[in-house]
Write the structure tokens for this entry.
Amino acid sequence: MRQSYHPAYEPTVHVVDDDAAVRKSLALLMASAGLHAKTYASAEEFLEQYDPHRPGCLILDIRMPGISGLRLQEILAARHDAIPVIFLTGHGDISMAVQAMLSGAVDFIEKPLHNGHLLEVTQRSLQFDAQRRREQARRSDILERLERLTPREREIMEYVVQGKLNKVIAAELGISTRTVEIHRARIMEKLGVRSPCEIVGMVLAAEPSKATETESLND
Amino acid sequence: MLGSYVPVDGGRLNPKMSISKKNISQTAGLPAKARHGSSPSEGHAHQLAIRPEKYAGCQENIDRNCLPSARLGMMGFEQRAENPRPQAAFCPDERRLHILINALPVLIGYVDREERYHFTNKTHQDWFDYSPAQIAGMAISELLGEATYQTLRPYIRLALSGQQVNFETVVAFPKHGERHICAFYVPDIVDQGEVQGFFCVVNDITERKRAEQQQRTRLKEVAQAARLSAMGELVRQIAHEVNQPLSAIASYCGAGIRMVESGTAGALEIIEILRDIATQAQRAGNIIREMRRLVHKRAPRFAAIDINKLVSEILHLVQMESSGRAISVRVDADPTEPRVLGDKVLIEQVVLNLLRNALEAMEGKPLEERCLTVRTWKNSDQEVEVLIQDNGTGLPAEAASQIFEPFFTTKSGGMGMGLSISRSIVEMHRGRLWATANPEGGASFHLALPSSYETVLSSGV
């Protein structure tokens, strides 16, 4: 069960609940599953200590004094922080749970908790978070490379992505085929790719749609 | 004074409505033409002037329109005959009175001893749809139909025996079907006490009654909905409270099982987990016990209670709750140490509620200005009164009685049940609980409880 991580990449299960017993028991449950958990008595405390650059997921009591679980979700969304959120709900919190799911929560689990289910969802959330972070890293790498292209190179890249031949591009831009070939070579070099197909893959990866994210999560 | 009011419709008639036969006989002057020659003094006319205090609280029985019109009619004829005061700007004569009577939106008629109509106003004529010529001499039974006549007959008899009658009833009319009417019969008594006939003033209050009924139904529905939602809220809160320890227990168990299975925990760790589980189970049990204590209907145990001691204990408790918030409390306890008869636990709840309310009401004030006064004294041989007076926000405007209604609250987090439950408890003790506004600001809550037998005896009754 125990997974080993490089210390810098060891994910943290953040548990935010105003009930001390719930916090302590969940930390113990996570530890028993080989997961590192950190507990917070309030949303405020979490926001003070939370480092968004570290991988992890968030187990959040929906109903708390002060900043509620739903409000914390809103705050994180406003910061474009996509940390996976699992809500703990009580009896009769269905409408709040629906709201939470619509706002992108991974899941909600009704108290008293079925801990097998909770661990399962937690593991899934951590995997999703890791995948999300990998994709994000790749995306920023691609964006960085695309940044290096000159405006002319970008223009020519658009044609290449559309699958146009050098001759056609040259004719449309009113330049020589040779010049197009030189630009292409520079583009491939700057992006670090060997074929036009790879360029297409990169451009698509840089603009991921919401749909692909949700799909990968629910697999 | 004759016993001249008639209990009709469940005895709802207000005794204050009675008018002495003597007064009427001296001044009631219709048929007008017959009375022109007589000469009652101006004083008599004044006796008949409308005295509003006599009719206070009678709106239920009589539409306001009914009475003044009848009285005005008689008074007007009187003045025309006897009192043509030149200085008066307006002196209603017969012509003017006819205009007035015809314009009144109530049915007015004069019926003689043979139960035949002599005079009716325009409203009456329009309502029954006939001409003045048609109605003259027509019998009541003929106009109203036999069934309705039989319903009204007892009242007609009473009016013709010289008694003033007012009543509400439901009768069927040929043209209008079933109507709820409010009627007022005024006997026409001549000097020798002989009844010549009576005036009938009738108002159709069907619509008003229907609206009242609708209003009542609606209020009932609203109250029911409020009760249900408060109940739902309560259940939700309890469920939330119980779910916390249950949730912790489930997680502890899951953790324990995994740790034993994976061999990562020794006996000591497992014992600690089991202790935590036991604590949480205890916690869940306590919540349920607390609920049972709140909900469980135990029979009240009545005993003599030292009210001074009870109040001072609760006061102490409340002061501990608000520790650090030192406010000035004036205690004025009855030195005779009166005892009241009651259930100590319940009375404690009431006093606690009143004291907490008083402190909360003063929260908007600087500490040094807050002043709580608690007083106990025997307000009579039978009762001991507890006064809890604050100088806080005071009672909500025009709501001194509403504050005891369930779900009425002025507090943002309040359920509005405290005072309502308190009053139920006090009423169960045959005591009284009421609130008054202090002239210098703030509210006073008065709790009056029956003295215990020993207190009654020692006061020498």
About this structure: The longest strand of chain B covers residues 177-189.
